[in-house]
Amino acid sequence: MSIKLFNTLTREKEDFKPIEPGKLKMYVCGPTVYNYIHIGNARPAIVFDTVRRYFEYKGYEVDYVLNFTDVDDKIIQAAEESGEDVRTLADRFIDAYLADVQALGVKKATHHPRVTETMDDIIAFIEGLVDKGYAYEVEGDVYFKPRSFEGYGKLSHQSIDELRVGARIQVGEKKEDPLDFALWKQAKDGEVAWDSPWGVGRPGWHIECSAMAKKYLGETIDIHAGGQDLTFPHHENEIAQSESMNDKPFANYWMHNGYINIDNEKMSKSLGNFVLTKDLIKKHDPEALRFFMLSVHYRNPINFTEELLGSAKNSLERIKTAYHNLEHRKQTSMNLVDNKEEWLKKIKQFTLDFEKEMDDDFNTANAISVLFDLAKEANIYLDQEQTHTSVLEAFQETIVTLLGILGIDLEEEQELLDEEIETLIEERNEARKNKDYQRADEIRDLLKNRSIILEDTAQGVRWKRG
């Protein structure tokens, strides 16, 4: 079965057909690096990393580009406030971004281009648009004319007249039409800037991605992706620039992930519910956060609460516990049962079911349900008096593979730290107090399979490593 994905451009699910068989060119809009990322930024990092992983699982060679905007009004302002130069501040927050997403299981991109390192390509791209009549220069600023591009509005599905209603000319702007947008900005005194045919300045936001996508992936790419908030104006403007310059489609498929709400309210600084990723991963297991993000279809909004994150953590732990229980049972497996082939056939079906869900627009929510069913079936098998090692291993290999597609690596689980053990014991005590014996038993089994021995004493539970 081919992979189907929802194309924002056509608003339909389409069969994915690569430009080049067996290869995928994918561009994801990265962060503007003036601060630490919030969980809204973490969602596309996780979602599109999972898309990449699934394509690789299906045998594709993936060329994955995620850019860094490392010069921008916000970066310049943040540098002034911190007393750093722009490059130092940008470097610091690029490092912070990479540390955060690595903790969340995100693989490093094939290329991580930076605006400041792509300046010659950006200037050449703007020159081309001016030469072709799609852009014009006014006193050191260069603007693109959306009205000159026939397809403007096709991604956001708005007409040029609808877009014109909300457009304004800001104070200091010299553009001819409110819809026109900046490709190059004349530098203010003291700002970081580069020489160009139009004087000293720096690029506008939208032109950066058009130039970087072309440099690293070519004039037409397979998939362009990012958050839903980028559909207009950023991605709309990228299409206009790139297709005007190259006279061919910019991206064949456009993917956008939904918003994140915090306790049923839109996340915003004004509401005081702004959650930084670095703070969350200090407090919670990063794998649980990733699992939570994938528990909802990527195009749907997701509501973040501590309770829902805790529920995701428990759900992931149940799958891990099944894996560790299988490992423990291998020590006593008799290999005498004759229903091995029947069970191996059942296990194979779970992989097919998982692929069916992922092939349908990367439905990770339903794919996770398949994983739950797999863990449940593994527990049923473990209840048998006799087991076969090959079946136990098939269950384990399937759990490892399917979780791996979701970016959770069971094979590289680190030894539990002392404080993690104490936290699990405390959670087990609380579960027993609340008569949640299923959860208490899951924690006991988890610790047992990680060679942690519990001893109930008059002074409470003690533990030691076995």
Could you characterize what this model shows?
- Helices cover about 45% and strands about 15% of the residues.
- The model has no long low-confidence stretch (mean pLDDT about 90).
- The protein has helices at about 40-55, 75-80, 85-105, 120-130, 160-165, 205-215, 230-245, 275-285, 285-295, 305-330, 340-360, 365-380, 390-405, 420-435, 435-450, and strands at about 5, 10-15, 25-30, 60-65, 135-140, 140-145, 180-185, 200-205, 220-225, 250-255, 260, 265, 300-305, 450-455, 460-465.
- It starts with a strand and ends with a strand.
- By secondary structure, the chain is an alpha/beta fold.
- The strands form five sheets. A four-stranded parallel beta sheet has the order 4-3-9-10, with helices on both faces. Strands 5-6-7-8 form a four-stranded antiparallel beta sheet.
- α2 packs across α3 (about 85-105), α4 crosses α6 and α10 crosses α15 (about 435-450).
- The chain folds into three domains: about 5-255, Rossmann fold, CATH 3.40.50.620; about 280-410, Isoleucyl-tRNA Synthetase, Domain 1, CATH 1.10.730.10; about 420-465, no CATH class.
- This is Cysteine--tRNA ligase.
- Its EC number is 6.1.1.16.
Low-pLDDT regions? none
- Main sheet: strands, sense, barrel: 4 strands, parallel
Could you please say which CATH topology of the largest domain applies here?
Rossmann fold
Q: Rough shape?
A: elongated
Q: What order do the strands of the largest sheet run in, or round the barrel if closed? A: 4-3-9-10
Binned, the helix content reads 40-55%
Number of domain units: 3
Radius of gyration: 26 Å
GO molecular function, one term: zinc ion binding
Protein name: Cysteine--tRNA ligase
InterPro entries: Cys-tRNA-ligase (IPR015803), Cys-tRNA-synt_Ia_DALR (IPR015273), Cys-tRNA/MSH_ligase (IPR024909), CysS_C (IPR056411), Rossmann-like_a/b/a_fold (IPR014729), tRNA-synt_1_cat_dom (IPR032678), tRNAsynth_Ia_anticodon-bd (IPR009080)
Subunit structure: Monomer.
